[in-house]
Amino acid sequence: MTTPKIIPARNWGQRAVALLLIIIVALLVSLVATSRHIIWSAIPQYIFDETILDGIKLTILFTVLSMVISIIAGAILAMMRLSPNPVLSAFASLYIWFFRGTPLLVQIIFWFNIQLFIPSIDIGSFHVDTNSIITAFIAALLALSLNEAAYMAEIIRGGLMAVDSGQHEAAKALGYTPGQAMLRIIFPQALRVIIPPIGNQTISMLKTTSLVSIVAAQDLLTRAQNIYARNFLIIELLIVASIWYLVMTTIASAIQFIVEQRLGKSTNQTPGFVTNALRLMRAEGRNG
Amino acid sequence: MSIPNISPAASPIVEAVDVHKSFGSLDVLKGINLAVSKGEVVCLLGPSGSGKSTFLRCINHLERMTRGRIFVDSRLIGYHERGDALYEMSSKDLAAQRRDIGMVFQRFNLFAHQDVLTNISQPPILNRGTPRAEALDRARELLKMVDLEGRGSAYPYQLSGGQQQRVAIARALAMNPKLMLFDEPTSALDPELVGEVLNVMRKLAADGMTMIVVTHELSFAREVADRIIFMDQGVVVEEGPARELLDNPRQQRTQAFLRRMH
């Protein structure tokens, strides 16, 4: 007697949807690929254009600087928010409320036009025109950093609150000063919770920086716009920019993946964030 | 209040005078007076909500008292007394005072991101300026003392509750405290793990460490404590030598409590 072969149940509904998707994607691709309105040769021509590469440098610079500034400012705001002093905590709440509640685009335009209500800075005999300090670069950086700091403050506050209060008590009982306890005991443990969302924010920031093109801050999108303003290859240059944004976010995601793996290995009370996510995905794959 | 069972020559290492504590309108401590002499083991017994843990936490100023004074080694804890007012110390001064007072918590509170050896050696390195090599040697010695030789590279989550609590005791001892406070050290443990922690505490008592222990372990109190303080509703109801208090409680509340515990 032979053992009967096991044939898993087929989900015909899923197969039908999959087929439909394949058809739709194929149609879209052929529509774009065979379009007589896209000059494909323009893409290799511009992808390594010096202007575009300069724009990438600036986009990366905006991302890195605004993330560093916002993490520092966010940490300060988070500690203020958690402080027992009502003025400090109210200030932090107000800041977060304001900067999360107004559009980033508005904030960028505001900083760029700050000279309209503060035309110059005078301290004693020191005099300087606001315009000469608040360049498009500085306005863009200020807007990105101050806005991001509000989100960072909430992320860091969440991380600090996730650390068991017993850890703080033990540190106190062992004679740690509050600063030491924060630095040596609380913050390192909060990092486990803080780092994954910081990774997400960084990836998001790579794309958000494109908003600064509104003040012509010379980022990647600004450069692409400058070029297509001259030659009208709008779609082609937007494709060039998109390719670079995809490259940057893919690399950033890979870095995030590696960092989270490390983090999960070194200090796991619970299995790492990534390990958990992978396990979930695998389990779902099995079900599907 | 009289201080029974200690020789008059020994000046107390802990002295609490009229300690009050209230949370809002709730009076948790209503005037606790207590003196503990060097090398003495005192157990605080009492029903939950009697204020014994709160009182313990006042001794190293983890809890701010509402009135009264506590001295450890003749130094006022948590405050500078000027005129007729007590000014709370800066967090730096508080930290310095706490370095001499070891504390063991119900929930162990080992630093989750550090291995066992770092848990034990970092506090003296940072807070006593002990050279690293010396602190690590001492940490290994203490691990041996709590029967965890060779487990220095383990992380807290890899240890059982009993093992974690023994590491916590070693960590407190690494600061060379003058006094050890135990806040229900075995209450969070599975019953079969209680013994290993009590064994370490027995050893410590035999070595002459001054200990104040909040506990529900009556047999431990009977065997190890020099003196038992029975608290209820924020006051000391009765105190006396361990056996005497456990076998012949004089106060009705003590009798009722002990009946419930058996």
From TrEMBL, chain A:
Function: Part of the ABC transporter complex GltIJKL involved in glutamate and aspartate uptake. Probably responsible for the translocation of the substrate across the membrane.
Protein name, per record: Glutamate/aspartate import permease protein GltK
Segments forming domain ABC transmembrane type-1: 56-256
Name of a matching Pfam family: BPD_transp_1
Cellular localization per UniProt: Cell inner membrane; Cell membrane
Protein topology in the membrane: Multi-pass membrane protein
Quaternary state and interactors: The complex is composed of two ATP-binding proteins (GltL), two transmembrane proteins (GltJ and GltK) and a solute-binding protein (GltI).
UniProtKB/TrEMBL annotation, chain B:
Record domain ABC transporter: where: 14-258
UniProt-annotated location(s): Cell membrane
Entries under InterPro entries matching the protein: AAA+_ATPase (IPR003593), ABC_ATPase_HisP-typ (IPR030679), ABC_transporter-like_ATP-bd (IPR003439), ABC_transporter-like_CS (IPR017871), MetN_ABC_transporter-like (IPR050086), P-loop_NTPase (IPR027417)
Membrane topology: Peripheral membrane protein
Keyword Cell membrane among UniProt keywords: yes
Source superkingdom: Bacteria
Molecular function per GO: ABC-type amino acid transporter activity; ATP binding; ATP hydrolysis activity
Presence of keyword Translocase: no
Keywords: ATP-binding, Cell membrane, Membrane, Nucleotide-binding, Transport
Annotated GO CC locations: plasma membrane
Family indicated by similarity: Belongs to the ABC transporter superfamily.
Record protein name field: Amino acid ABC transporter ATP-binding protein, PAAT family
The organism of origin for this protein: Arboricoccus pini
